[in-house]
Structures are given as C-alpha cells and as structure tokens.
Amino acid sequence: MTKTKIVSKSTKKKRQSLPLWMKNPYFYIIAGFVIILIILYLKVLFVGQDFSQPDAVSAGYANEGLNYHFSKEHTYPLWNPYLFSGMPAFASMSFNKFAYFPGLILNPINYLKVPGSVFMILHYLLAGLGTYLLLRRWALDKLSAFFGGVTFMMMPYIVTMYVFGHGSQMMCATYIPIILYAIV
Question: Beta partners for 80?
Fold first, then answer.
C-alpha cells in the first residue's frame, strides 16, 4: 500500500512563489557557509582589516616592484632582484601573476576595489562546499555534511596558512575535497 502525502494549497503556492535560485537545494547550504564566513571575517570584509605578518608584507612589497615593471614594460619579469639578492620570479613561483588559473577567472574582483582577502575567503567557501559535496557523496545526511564542511572550512591549520603568508598552500588544501569528490 502506498502512502500519499497530503500537501495543502498554501504550501504549493509558497513553493511556486519562491524565486528559482531559492529552489536550488544547495542555496541554503551555500548561504549557511557565507553567513558563517561573514561572522568570522566581519572586520576583514567590512572594516578593511587584513592579516599580516612581517615576512609576508616584505614579500608583498617586493612584488609591487615587479607589478610596476609589468605595468610599464608589458613584459613578465623573469628575475626578482628584491628577494634574497635576486632570484627567479616565475620559476620560483614568488611572482605568479598569471600562473594560478582560478586567479585569472576571479581577477575581475580586483577591479571592484575589494580587499585582497576576499579572494582568500572565497577559497574557504570552496573548502566548505567541496567538503559538503564529498560527504554527501559518501552518504552522510545533509546536516552532518554541512557541519563537516564548516569544520574543514574553519580548521585552524587552514586558516593560519593564509595568516602566515602561505596562501598558495591554503588554496591547494581547499581543492582536496573537490578533487576527492571528482575521483570518488
């Protein structure tokens, strides 16, 4: 015997009146991750504060010289004379303006004059969402997968990678659940 689910007319009207993007099953999951990130990084997103360490700041100043060279000469600088009495710029990945493919896709964010930390915070969102998708693929329920995504997204080891100037390591770590999701 099959049971039929009785749904009132008002419930049907509410579902039909929702915008299409709110009917997406991942909308509320992404919204939850975004709300958590806004709460955690409120001052970074809206006040203009940033994470900084002396060694990361000095490397940033060295890259400003290379950015200036690139904007004036329109050629990619192959040598960085400002770090360690000179070192390769592209081969050492110390100045990788065009080497990080997602950076090229998200580059228009820079034209909006938002802080550079927003780019990193988007990677935390990718970490949470990727973990959620992976845990759902492994047959966990939605709530458990959501908390798993939040846990990975807020893991102190990943958060401090960016704080101490290891942004590329943090970006690589955020792709681990997405890669596992694609493989499994």
Answer: 87
Bridge-partner residues for 88, per DSSP?
Answer: 79
CB-based contact 128:150 (threshold 8 Å):
yes
Q: What Cα–Cα distance (Å) separates residue 118 from each residue in 114, 124, 143, 179?
A: 7, 10, 27, 23
Element (H or E) spanning 174, and its range?
Answer: helix 167-183
Cα 81 off chain centre by: 31
Which residues of the chain carry a pLDDT beneath 50? none
Q: What is the pLDDT of residue 20?
A: 78
Gap between the Cα atoms of 59 and 120, Å rounded: 17
Q: Where are the alpha helices (DSSP H) in 41-116?
A: 42, 54-73, 101-105, 108-111
**Coil, strand or helix: which one is 171?**
helix
Tell me the per-residue pLDDT of 141-176, one tens digit each, with 9 for 90 and over.
Answer: 999 999 999 999 999 999 888 877 777 888 889 999
* Closest by Cα among 60, 98, 58 to 78: 98
